[in-house]
Each structure stands twice: as structure tokens, then as C-alpha cells.
Amino acid sequence: MTARLDTYTVPETLPPDVSAPDGPDAPAGPDAPHAHAALAGPAPLEAAHRRTRGVRSSARTLGRSGLAVLRRPGLLLAVLFLLLVVAWALAPGVFAAQDPITGVPTDRLQAPSAEHLFGTDHLGRDVYARVVHGSWLSLSATVIAVALGLSVGSLLGLLAGFLRGWVDDVVGRVVDVLLAVPSLLLSLAIITVLGFGTVKVAIAVGITTIAAFARVMRAEALRTSSTTYVEAARASGVRWYTVLRRHILPNSAGPVVALTALELGSSVLAISALSFLGYGAAPPTPEWGALVSGGRDYLASAWWLTTLPGLVIVAVVLSANRISRSLEKDGEDR
Amino acid sequence: MGRYIARRLGQGGFVLWAAFTISFFLLYVLPSDAASIKAAGADGDLSDPELVARLRAEQGLDRPVLVQYAHGLWGALHLDFGRSFSSGAPATKLLAEALPPTLQLTALALGLALAGGAALALASTYPRARWLRHTLTSLPALGISLPTFWVGLLLLQWFSFELRLFPAMGNEGFESLVLPAFTLAIPASAAFAQVLSRSLRQTLAEPYVETARAKGAGRARVHFGHALRNASIPALTVLGVTVGGLLAGAVVTETVFSRAGVGRLTVTAVNQQDVPVVQAIVVFSAVVFVVVTLLVDLLYPVLDPRITTRQPSAAA
Amino acid sequence: MSVPVHDDVLLDVQDLRVGYRTTAGGDAPAVDGVSLQVRAGEVVALVGESGSGKSTTAHAVVNLLPRGGRRTSGTIRFGGQDLTGLSEGEWREVRGRRIGLVPQDPTVSLNPVQRVGDQVAEVLVIHGLARRREARRRAVDLLEKAGLDDPAARARQYPSQLSGGMRQRVLIAIAIAAGPDLVIADEPTSALDVTVQRRILDHIELLRSTLGTAVLLITHDLGVAADRADRIVVLRHGRVVEEGPARSVLTDPQHPYTRELIAAAPSLASTRLGSGAAVLPTSRPAAGPDDGTQVASSAPLLEARGLRKEFPLPRGAAARSLVAVDDVSFDLHAGQTFALVGESGSGKSTTARLVLRLEQPTAGSLLLDGTDLTAARGEELRRLRRRFQVVYQSPYASLDPRFTVEQIVEEPLRAYKVGDARARRARVRELVDQVALPATALGRGPRELSGGQRQRVAIARALALRPDLVVLDEPVSALDVSVQAQILDLLSALQAEHGLAYLFISHDLAVVRQVADHVGVMHRGRLVETGTADRILLDPREEYTRELVAAIPGRRALADAGTP
């Protein structure tokens, strides 16, 4: 039994060709070929015959989604790049040997080359090394921000969607207000109170993401709790907390996971913008936004100082968005 | 219809009240002593209790919180957010002075964003060639991944320093407006295009589109006569957020292009922890959001008769 | 191959093949060599279950295949002209002008933001038959022709202001606007109530006789086909299995699949399953009073008394509240089936939800074996729930997609901590066996099962706690007829074996007469007539019941053919 429990906690990605007809009540639209399965009766059983019950484990599910990644080169690239950036953050020394803080004065403002991939800045510091070493602060700020939004926002949304009534009204109003103030301005107001620094910036950005998580989680909780299978569980006598744990949470998770990936991307943008404005770590500590800002005085002479660190930010955000989109699409397919 | 408008007005009023209240408690009450912030910002002399006390009295901070709140709310209703900690001028006056250049900038950017976004959305759904649709569909995803400050700096690099087409900074004339407006418009148009093209694709899959095609309607008639109006309804919803985003983007853009405006005022106020000015800006941005959302709400019934018409009565 | 069979052949489809692009690459065939003809002024019914390719065939005829679908071979000739080589521009002159299409679901097939009159007028404008102003005027005439009352006022309304039946009439007006020679009606009434369905089909028939338009009627209901068509073409798995005049297909089917379909079609069958007593729809029962409850000797298992349910309406609506169920009383005895029949909005499903205690009644009482269900709360109610379980209409929606069959069936056992894990496992196996599913299904998810198999899982779940009463809320209306018959058989067998009482909710009198001992007819929240199934069907006393009985498709054909 224990091996089998994880079949419903791990999201299951069925390859699209196996998925049986899942449309609304028959007779549905122009009869797509997969509808054959419905009529043929035992056919889908036959098709799935190879898969014996015992193997139906999380390992196989992971293996399958691994295959799905391989079939989509864009997605594969996005995952690999994000893994690389995480590796930069965890072990920057492995990827960039040069010192990110003290430069070699004779090497100042050199264009990109084999020796200095991203060139050097006005103090002769290797820009690539500064990007690699800056990824720890930038990424951890992002993770703090999203973790804050995810935990507070989803809790609020879950309460609103599951309890409804006045709780829903209150959460709805709070979300309205959070959405009414543009997130960057809200972050700035919070920074006015908290002061400067990477963690404070992360908290300020995290608070602005609460609204999005609360909205999505509420919508999902409302949707799943009004499904027939939840009602069927209630009607057969299952207690409400069991329904919440076994049906509502697992079936609401998909879109929230997709949103998490999306918010990781937009938080990277928001944090780098605040860091660009100078509210993050104090120099000379490298941080992505601050790196771009540092190149402003050399726009005319050293393009690489702004362009290349900026490109890294773009690539990270693009990758996060790409992953979010495929998570969302997998959710729609099921 | 009257009931619909009244309800929307009520909701808008509530949001404004809540935005004021939350920012008030955030900015004035949470920090144990707003005056000490001011003192730190002004001359850094926190150790002088006499100065702190004088400042507290000056700002009315020695009164009970609820009295301060009532006073603040009463003032806000009269467009009075108190005096700037740093310059001593009324916060509302500072905001009003900074507003015109920012309005020009965001208005131009909004026009560019809507036109560009709509064009991109149509271009990514209309062509018959699959590869072209696919390529154009991926553009908005790229656009929303670009940091505003980076786009601004790249535009500066190319158009000011390389090509010398536009000035690099300042508020002089229309030419100085072009690059900042494009900087602001690029991410905004990408976001708008994403919502509209998604909505268009969903609409084009609706059964009533098949009905139109079964009538013998051509591609253009189906797209512009049936799908676009239906698809623009959800796309309009994001207009409030779009305008708010442009206002917030002005903070970064005005910094990059060294323009005067609300954005620069915000940066200065945050740097000096000038609480009254920050609060005035936050509440102002909520006003903008509420007004835009209200305008959109008034536009809905024009586009979608379902909002004001009654439900079906009885059987056939 | 493309030699016309007859001079007046209007539509001649030869060896049509349509494939859908699959994710694996390559095409999955949906239509696999279909040939059919429609003569001028003729009604041909294309009958098949889901996945038979009937709708795909219809869409291929007007070249409106859904995304991913394409014609791989075959010819389509219309009025002597080969359509297969037409450009998109030339197709546009065929669609609407020469072939009209009545789509499946009227509630979503009209543009919600355009006035219906303009949507009808558009056809005339597209084909250059009228200028805008003139087209609008003619649209009103067309709406009148399609059978809408007060067409001038209707033309200025939006779709959301019209009922489903009215919308279908608007779509008929659109289809006939340009005076086409052929109208393809794709399941034109499957989304509508039976009485509305009958009126719409009557009207299509009227148009055929007045305008001489040929009709290709796509339907899953053999009864509808038998009533309305001159000829019937039976499709299965993308192939034609039988074709011929409606009467001979019905009375003398050649292919075993057609015989199976006829046997399964509830509207053409007439026996109470499991009882063996045939009830001929043309015969009348022995005269005698019948109060509908006299059969039972013992006290009823379930007594509903004066049930009433009001739903509050949002402020600003005309009324304060909506009365969904109004003074409904009935008895249900152990081992018997009581069916509640009604159209959408009649309150039958709300009544089921009241019985299931998913809604609290505004007034009235429910006694289960003498215990008042309406008064029960919390743990007491949970204990009572063991005794009444439910099977829902849609087997796609009522099973959690993340669960395996074993987990689904086990869930009620776990909820009541019945036995240990091993005992529960054994019980689940037994249940799955009872509903005739293979043991290999246990580890599968609902997605890997067909509709009928999923419904079997739902039944197994309902039986897990050995309830006395099972509420069956439209348990077969989402299923194909042949699957319907299997599920109804299973339900009868289980009832006989376990002495179950069924509260059977259905919109379909034809299905009801196969399973019910007693029938209650609901209309606008009230129970207008109750009685034994035979009595209700053969001797309906209320006007509304008579209308319902008359609307059962297949009756006309049966009367003509003179066979049950």
C-alpha cells in the first residue's frame, strides 16, 4: 500500500496518445478518433495492458515526464539553463575562477574574449565572474520572494475557496487592493519602511506576489470543490478534511505550480529592477540588477557591461516562463 | 444598468479607502516612530530626543494612532497627504508638479502598447501559414521576459550613442519622449498581446465561429466580424493592470533616461524615506487603477450585451 | 467510383476517408471508406454511436473538419459537381448557399454579442443575396419560417435572451436563409429537452415538405432516425454497416450491429428489465384504479413528505427566491425502483440532492426506515450516509482523475474504517468483480477506461458500503445506447441480488420504462403524476405526461411497423 500512495501525490503526466476520451458528456463534437476507445469498451484496457500495477510508481511517472522534456527541445534547454544557474549559485568558484570583487587594474574595460567571456569592467573585474557570483544573492532573493507569496497567497486562496462566505469576501477585497497598486510601487513603499538590502527587497517583492497566488489558488479550490467527484466523496460519507487532503489539494496543485514557475521569472525581473535602482546589496557585492546599473556610465564605450548581464537575466526569465507554460499545458491536457 | 454602475463605483471607492488605510498603517504605524525615520533621513541625528519630540509634534505623531488616521483620511479626502519630510512642501503639490511629463510618457507608451499588442495578437492568429503563426506567438513571451531597465539601456546604446537619433536624457521636446516611451511600451505591449492572442485563439475554437464559417463567411469576416469583439472582452480586463504597470515602469524608465517626473519623485522619496510623498504616490496609483477599471467597466456593456440583458424567460 | 447511382442524386459521397493527426505523427482514421447518397428532397439519417465517424463525415461534406483532421481520400459530388478539388474561396460559395448546417449545441453556436436577426441576415449579405437593410427585413421572415413567435422582436434580441429551443430555431433560420438544396443537421436536438426536441424535429420535417430541402440528419438515436428519415445509414468505426429504407432497416436489420442497436435503443424496447413482463406500447392495461403505492406490503424504506426547496435569488431579480421543488411526496420500498422523470429545470435533480442530504430542504421531511434524515446533523448524518449512496450522470466527472480504480472503490470503506487494509482490498476485488470489470482494471486511472467502464466503477463505489438505497442521477444519459443497455442490465441484476432500492432520476421516459416500478413525473418543481410505470406510459392522465410520452422518439416508427 505504501508504494501505491505516491501515485496520487506525484503529478502524473500521461503521454497524450494514451489519454482516453475525457470530453464532456457524449455525444460530443465531431467524433475524434480517440473516441473509438470509448465505444470499443475493453480497448483502452488492452492498450494499457503492458503496464502492470506494481510498476505504477512515482519512478515511472518521473521517467515519463523526463521523456516528455526530451521531446520538447525548447523546454529541455530551459531546464538545463536553470540547472546551470542554480549550479552557479551553489558553487560559483567551480564555474568562474576570477575574483569577482577585486579586479586587475591593467585589464580594465576589455571587450569579451576567450579569457574574459563577458569582458571586464572599469576596475578590471571579470564580468562573467561577477554574474556567476551574483547569482547566489539574486536567486536566493527570488526564492524567498516566491516562497513568501506562495505560502501566504495559497493559504489565503485555499481558505477563501474552501470556506467561502465572509472569508472569501475578505480575501477577495485584500486581493483587490493588492492588485490596485502596481507591484513595483508597492515594493517601493515596503522598502521605504523596511530599508535597503537583498532580503528586504525579497520580502517587498514577495508581498506583491501574494495576490496572484491567492487568486489562482482560490479559483482552483472553488473549481475542485464543486466537482462531481468531490461531491461524490462527500455523499459517500468522507469527512471534509479527508476530502480536502485527498481530492481538493492534489487536484488544485497544477495551476499553482505553473504560477510558481511564472512568478519565479517575474520576481527575478522585479528584484533585478529594485537592485538596479540601488535598493539591493551594497556595492561591491555583485547582484544582477546592480551589475547592469554599474555599466550605465560606459554605455557608449563598453556595451558588454550592460548587455551581457542583462542577457543572463532575460535567459533566466525566459526559461522560467517556458517551464511555466509547459506545466500549464500539461495541466490543460489532462 | 444604474445598479451596475453604482456597484462598480462602490467597489472603486472601497479599494481607494483600503489602499489609503493599508498604506497609512504600513508607512506610519508599523515603523515604531515615523519621526525617527524622518530625523534619520533629514540630518541623521537620532540621538537628540528634543529634536525627535519637536518633529513628532510638528507631524502630529504624538497623538493616538486612530486620531492620526482620522486626520490623515480627512486630509486625503481633501487631497492633502501632509508635507514632505525633506523639502517641507505639500506632498500633493510635489506630485502635481511631477505629473505632466509622466502623463505624456505613459500616454504615449499606452498608445504604442495597445496598438503594438493588438497588431501582434492579430498577426499571430490571422495568417494561414502555421510556422508564421507559431513564430509570432512566441514573440510576446520574449517581450515580457525583458527587464525594462535593460531595454532602456540597449535603446540608449543603439539609438543615442551609436546612431545618435534621439537624445540620451532630459525632458526637452518630443524627441526625448520617443525612447522612454518605447522602453515602457515593449513589455506592456507583449503582455497585452499575450492576453489578446490567447483570448482570440480560444474564441476561434468556439462553436459559433464554426456557425459563421458554415454560413460561408471568409477568414477576414470570421476574424474581425465575430472573433475580435468577443476576444477583446477578456483582454480589456487587464487594461487597469497595464496602465498601473506603465506608471510603475516610469520609475525605472525615468531613472534610465534621467527624466523628471513621478518616477524620479518616487525614487527620491524612497531614498529619503519621505513617507508623505510615498503615500501620496501609492494612493495616486490606486486612483489611476480604479479610474481605468471603472472606464473599462463602463465599456463592457457596450461590447457585451449579456451584462445588461436579462436571462432567458421560458421554453421554446 | 463516382458514377451517380440515380439521376436525382444530390449528394454523392464515395469512399470517403478522414484521418486525424496524432501526436505520434501519422493519421488515425475516423472515417474509413464511407459512401452515401442523398437524393433531392430526401431525409437521410446517419446513425452511429460516439466514435462512429458520423459527425466527422458531416463536417467533411462541407470541408469544416476540426483542427488536425483532413480528408485522405474519396470524392464528394454535390449537384453533379465534384467538391473535392475546390479552393477555400469556392468552398465559401458552397457553404451556407448550397449546403446549410444546423450545429449540435444551440446554446454555444450563436455569437453572444450579435443580435440574432443580424446573424441570420449575415448569410444573405455574405452570398450577395441582399443588401444590409433588405437582409434584415428578410431575416425576420426567415425567423418566422423557422417557427419563432414574434420574429420582429426576437430579431433584435441577443442569444442569451432566448431559450435553447428558440436558439435552435435561429440556427435553422440561418441554415435555410440562402435557400440551400441540402441541410446537414448535426445532432440538432441532443442538447434539448424531449418535448422541445420533438417540436424542432417536427419543424425540420415541415421545412422539408414546404421547401423541398434535402436533410442529412446526424443522430445517435435510432428512434429519432426511424421516426424522421426516409433512409437510414448505420455507421460503426468509420464504416457503413447497413443502409436502406428506414422501415426495412428497423424491421429487418441485416447486420448484427444494427440488430444490437435496435435491441439496445431504449426508445424502441419496451420491456421492464429483469421482470420479463413485456409491456406493449400499443396495448392498454386492464382497467382499474392504481394509486401507485398499493404494490408494497411492508412499510416504505424511504418516505418523502411535502419536500420543498427554495433557492434565494440575487437581489434585483423579479422574485425573492426560486422554488425548485414544491410539495413533493413519494414512497420508495426496499428492492424497488422509483423513477423521477422530468425535463431540465423540473426539479428532479434537486429532489435527488435533497434525498442525498446534499441540500437541506426548506420544508418537508424525509424518513429513511422511520429515521428523519432532515433532522440529522454531523456524525449522526454521516452514520446514516452509509445507507444511501449515489451514482452520477457523468462518469467522466464523478471519479477523481488522480485516483486508481482501487482507490476510488475503497474510498467509502476507508472513510468508515471498514475492516483492515487486507479486508478492504478483498472487498474491493469482490465489488469490481460484481460490476463485471476485470481485476486488471484495479490499478488503472479513470482516464484509461471507457465511459461504460467508468460508470461500472462508480456503481462499485456506491455498493461498497452495502447501502439500502442508491440514488441514480441520470446514470446512463451520458453513455452510448449499447453501453446504456449493458449498464441498465447490470443495475437490474444488482438490484435483484442485493434487494436494493433505486431512486432513478431521468429525463428519458424510454429508459425509465425499462427500469422503473413506479414513476413520478415532475414539472416545474411539482410532482404532477405518480403511478406504476405501465400506467404512466400507457394511460397518462395529466396533459404534461401525455406530451412527454408522445415525445418519446421511435413511437411513430413502431406504430407504422407494427412490431415492438
Automatic annotation (TrEMBL), chain A:
Protein name per its UniProtKB record: ABC transporter permease
Pfam families in UniProt: BPD_transp_1 (PF00528)
Classification via CDD domains: TM_PBP2
PROSITE patterns named among the record's database cross-references: ABC_TM1 (PS50928)
Domain ABC transmembrane type-1 as annotated: residue spans: 135-324
Region spans: Disordered: 1-37
Keywords attached to this entry: Cell membrane, Membrane, Transmembrane, Transmembrane helix, Transport
Organism the protein comes from: Oerskovia rustica
Similarity section: Belongs to the binding-protein-dependent transport system permease family.
Location of the protein in the cell: Cell membrane
Low complexity composition bias: residue spans: 20-37
Matching PANTHER family: OLIGOPEPTIDE TRANSPORT SYSTEM PERMEASE PROTEIN APPC, PEPTIDE ABC TRANSPORTER PERMEASE PROTEIN
Ranges that cross the membrane: 74-95, 136-162, 174-195, 201-217, 256-282, 302-320
Membrane topology field: Multi-pass membrane protein
UniProtKB/TrEMBL annotation, chain B:
Main location: membrane
Membrane topology: Multi-pass membrane protein
Signal sequence interval, chain numbering: none
TM region(s), chain numbering: 12-30, 103-123, 135-157, 177-196, 233-257, 277-300
Domain spans labelled ABC transmembrane type-1: 99-300
Keywords assigned: Cell membrane, Membrane, Transmembrane, Transmembrane helix, Transport
PANTHER family the UniProt entry points to: DIPEPTIDE TRANSPORT SYSTEM PERMEASE PROTEIN DPPB-RELATED
Identification of the protein by name: ABC transporter permease
From TrEMBL, chain C:
Any Pfam family hit: ABC_tran
Domain ABC transporter: from-to ranges: 11-262, 302-549
Keyword Zinc appears in the UniProt entry: no
Residues making up the signal peptide according to the UniProt record: none
Listed PROSITE patterns: ABC_TRANSPORTER_1, ABC_TRANSPORTER_2
Molecular function GO labels: ATP binding
Sorted UniProt keywords: ATP-binding, Nucleotide-binding, Transport
UniProt family annotation: Belongs to the ABC transporter superfamily.
NCBIfam families: PRK10419.1 (NF007739), PRK11308.1 (NF008453)
Name assigned to this protein: ABC transporter ATP-binding protein
